[in-house]
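Worked Example 4.2. Consider the chain below.
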Amino acid sequence: MIATRSKGKFPEIVDQLQDLSYGFTNLNEIPGLPKNFEVEEPATTFEGNAIIKAMTYGKKTGLLTLAEDAGLEIDALGGRPGIYSARYAPGTDEDRYRKVLGELQDTPDEKRTARFVAVIAIYDPENDKVRICRGECEGKIITKPCGTKGFGYDPIFYNTQLHKTNAQMSIQEKNSISHRGRALQKAKEILKTEFI
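Applying the procedure from the previous section yields the following structure tokens:
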């Protein structure tokens, strides 16, 4: 099980893992799991929150569970929004990235450095085994959104390696260089060697 309800995140994850001998499901497809059931994320690190989510959903469903915690760290904001990325402002993804743009409006281009961080936890309820892996992707925050693909902060995160925002990339391009893609490459090896 991929422990997400996100319609954007689930296909990105499955695209990376599709050649493994697993079937994939997500939280929206689990019978008996209330639609409003959410796991609290009280940890102060991406690692802590990923482990909490993987273990909680894995124990509740009895399924091998992959959970992720990810966020955007902006140097000029002291690492914010960080672990609070998904709830940095109430409302939509656009509300959140507009808040970031507002906070950075007087910040010069050379000081707009940022990175996406993703930590994946894989939990097997049958043997209580947990494994974690991490991926990062460096870039900078541009001054106005650009692109229509992706989700979250993708329209304002400029990838300096591919010279475009994450919202201008195909899923395959994004997975090849993104924080989640890098973490998923490690997760894939863990799933092959330790769980199959």
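The domain at 9-195 is CATH 3.90.950.10 (Maf protein). The longest strand covers residues 129-141. Compare this with Example 4.1 before moving on.
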